[in-house]
Amino acid sequence: MSVVESKRKENGGSGPVTPDIGGTSLLKRESKVAKSLWLRQQDTITRLEELQRQHEEEIRAKEGRQNSYDDLRTPLRSVDGSRRPSVVNDINDYRGRPLHDQLHGAYRATLLSHHTKNLNLRGFLNLFFILLFVINFRMVTDNLMEYGLMIRLPSSFRDILSNWPMLLCFLLMHFCILGAFVIERFVAAWVPHLLDWSECVLIGLNFFLVFIVPYLTVCNSSPSPAASALLLAFSIVWLFKLFSFHHVCLDARRALRDGDNFRELCSNSEEAEHVRRYPYSITLRHLYTFIWMPTMCFQFYYPRVPRIRWLSVIRHVFESAACLALMKIVVDQHIVPVARNSFTITEMQSIPLSTLLVHFLDKITRLSIPNLYVWLLMFVGLFHHWCNILAEVTRFGDRQFYLDWWNASSFGEYWRKWNLPIHHFLNRHINKPLRRARFPRIVATSVVFLISALLHEYMITVPLQLGWTGWVFLGFMAQAPLTYITNLSFFQRNPTVGNCFFWFIFCFSGQPLGILIYWYLWGVKHGTVQQLDPSKIQIM
């Protein structure tokens, strides 16, 4: 039974039904209480915005109920009967009077409240840049006053010519590119089986030469560590490129043998057309262009820009040269002196362990800032300028060589965004084939980590000619549990905490500690650092 019918029965079944004023007011009070409870649960900004909206609604309601403002305005005639100026002039006359200036007529939040919208902190950003400049300028002046000018340039033409075996080896490596072309164009495409033993032997021999010839050149000559690292980097990059080239060609032969639908298999029609014409679609020019493209994943078709912008090439060349020069200055002036003085304590064998730990902790903190600058300069010079130079010269269209790794909240996110060419190669040619072969995900990820760790150990210990040390390998493999830890729900809910943890571990503790370890090993080998005897170090 409805409320209206019940009221009508109470009135004897006839007569008008009077509205329940008490029930309506009760609903209004309940609505007001509910809105008040809701406002208490909101943040400061939302609460003040809602109060301001209610205040404006009340003002509009009052203005709607008022028909005139004659009782609120001053009469147009003064006490003596003379007529006052117009209303506009009255308003102008009110300026400067306290009653006219209502400064606090709205609900507003403090500007630096947590939920403030559209907050402009550009002034603080400018202040931080000024502080950064002043602090670094002070660090530079202190370094010059303490060590003097330490920048070392090649002292003679003989120092430059000492690296000539590196250049000769680099030129000889081009025969491996020619060998890869000959294998795919004239051998692999005509053998009866998909992967013939003769083809495997030739490809394996070619890979072996790309890898072992630069290694033997570095070990049997006395080049600078920088030149050695550069040659080994080229050998690893070209090895990956040739592996991708043979892997893609093998997949093309499998598609031709199985009669696959090329348009479904390939991502675009141009790639499908090249696969259909295999092996005639392979040319030496195409392979050489791929070798110099800033990618390690071979494709028959790439997006290409219509022309080379030579002004952009020149700009990137000058900026990359500036990055190299700044790296040289920071290394010679700020990293080498600190690392050298870290092992000059004459009583190092007899001082207490606590004092020794404090000493090295001080050196790690002093190395952290210049090491961070060198690392960032290396990133800008390599992944931004050098890759853009190669992309511009080869007219390579995909210029995404890195993502926003600096915002990474986990180590896994960092490695996925830091170096996209390597990441794409390992994912396309190692991880996904292993997953397709039904290996567990943990096995595929472990293999990728193992390859990366071995390559980092190789790229550091061989140029320094220290042999196998295992420190870089262990440090890299230690990132596997760190990747698991930073993928926990706590770091996912608090990405800022994860990002700070990543920066601290990676740049302010791990890398400076690695510099000290390898400076010590380098100094012990060359006799400039006294080897520590752990048995002689005092515990207390």
TrEMBL record:
The keyword Transmembrane helix applies. Belongs to the membrane-bound acyltransferase family. Sterol o-acyltransferase subfamily. It is a multi-pass membrane protein. The keyword Nucleotidyltransferase does not apply. Pathway: Lipid metabolism. The active site is at H456. GO terms for biological process: triglyceride biosynthetic process. Pfam families: MBOAT. One of its GO terms (cellular component) is endoplasmic reticulum membrane. This is O-acyltransferase. GO terms for molecular function: diacylglycerol O-acyltransferase activity. The chain crosses the membrane at residues 123-141, 161-182, 194-217, 229-250, 286-302, 372-391, 442-460, 466-488, 500-521. Residues 1-26, 58-85 are annotated as: Disordered. InterPro entries: MBOAT_fam, Oat_ACAT_DAG_ARE. Keywords: Acyltransferase, Endoplasmic reticulum, Membrane, Transferase, Transmembrane, Transmembrane helix. Its main location: endoplasmic reticulum. Residues 1-11, 58-74 have a biased composition (Basic and acidic residues). Signal peptide: none annotated. It is found in: Endoplasmic reticulum membrane.
